[in-house]
Amino acid sequence: MRIINVNPIPSSIFEELGFYWYTSPETPNYVADELVVITEAEGEAYYRAANELYDMFIEAGQYAIDHDLYDLFDIPRNLKEMIEVSWEDESHFHMIGRFDFAGGVDGKPIKLVELNADTPSVVFEIALIQWMILKHNKMKEENQFNSLYETLKESFIRLKRLHPYFGKHEEKIPRALFSCLNYSIEDENTTRLFEQIAYEAGFMTDFQYVDKVYFSSNEGIFKKNGEEDVKFDYWFKPIPYEYIGREEPELAGILTDILKNKLAILLNPPYALLFQSKSILKILCDLFPGHPLLLETDFEPLKDKACVEKKTLGREGANVRILDASGNTLLNTPGDYETYRSIYQEYVDLPVDAQGRFYQAGVFFSYEACGLGFRREKGIIQDRSQFVGHFITNFS
User: Each residue of 262-314: pLDDT tens digit?
Assistant: First the structure.
């Protein structure tokens, strides 16, 4: 790994921005005071991989729908209609996802680890923080593969073009409500970042915690504003769909009706859950055997090969096991996803630095690849693994 040191951003600036999770008892320095150095060719290769893979995910998603693979994907059956309604109407736009990759630097080939398609994290870090590190160190912002903020703004503008039947309020401006659960400052401030971007794209926006939002099968999505009910055309929520399906089945039914009646659009769309389930990694291998971007994946441990066991709807590195070729556990993480189906993905070494820290690349996708960043850890990459920005150099 090629690493350069940079001057860290003062905590006071982080807090002024609303980035309060820059430190925690487990990770006192969540944002590294170093940058991964990559070449322009390496950055372009990450982007090409994300763009190519997204088209492959669309084909795999259609296969899953055609063959009714919801049970295999651990997707609650009460989400099936909602998923298919959003899939069949191209105006339901997949706002954002994040590909995780192994390799891509030091001559190692790029390999897909997974696609975080429903509620991807580190948006704040890639869109704002690593850009701020460059500015703070008087580096040119062109020396980074990072247009996430601008691309998200273009995606919101694209949404407006897809929905001419919206924006029929008195002010003739589409309305978007941004909601999250009231327990995580990271979720809230990331949600508010999306709200700011949508506002800049020409939406009338508002924020409300999800438990105070009103849903009606026949009327849509509302927020109380004094004695008035304000109706919204779009609802953004960083709440996993499988959680809604299992824990809030009544809401799942109402949201299905809202989509069928064209009363509102959900961001991300429900079909993102097809891409989120790691079962799709097995389908990709079946549809594209031997593809250079894919790692062999199955629902049983791979014979005579080291592999990584993951849960279909596991998140943030929880319930992961690394197995050697004999099936012995080398590393594992705890978590709350043990009831889900396991998938087994061929193990591949991540790039490693002189301190023994492994690096995993993340590439955001919003209509196109648009933002690169890294996480690093001495073991399995998890939610609190250190975030590392990057810097482009032109050496070959």
Answer: 999 999 999 999 999 999 999 999 999 999 999 999 999 999 999 999 999 99
CA distance 222 to 234: 10
Q: Which is it for strands 175-178 and 204-207: parallel, antiparallel or unpaired?
A: parallel
Residues sharing a CB contact under 8 Å with residue 24, sequence separation 6 or more, in sequence order: 30, 384
Q: How far apart are CA 21 and CA 213, in angstroms?
A: 26
DSSP H or E run through 11: helix 11-17
- pLDDT over 70, % of the chain: 99
Based on the fold, state whether residues 308 and 265 are members of the same structural domain.
Answer: no
Q: Which helix (H) or strand (E) holds 106?
A: none
238, 323: one domain: no
For 128, which DSSP code?
I
Nearest to 372 by CA among 159, 151, 211, 177: 151
Name the token pair of 175. Answer: 């309305």
Q: Is residue 170's pLDDT more than 80?
A: no
Q: How confident is the model at residue 395 (pLDDT cuts 50, 70, 90)?
A: low
Examine the pLDDT at 396 and tell me if it is beyond 50: no
Distance, CA of 104 to CA of 108 (rounded, Å): 5
- The domain tally of the chain equals 2
Considering the domain boundaries, does residue 120 fall inside one? yes
In the predicted model, is pLDDT for residue 221 greater than 50?
yes
Q: Which helix (H) or strand (E) holds 252?
A: helix 249-260
Domain carrying residue 321: 296-346
Is the Cβ–Cβ distance between 1 and 36 less than 8 Å?
Answer: yes
Nearest to 39, CA basis, from 78, 91, 2: 2
Evaluate whether residue 212 is within a structural domain: yes
> Is 341 in the same domain as 356?
no
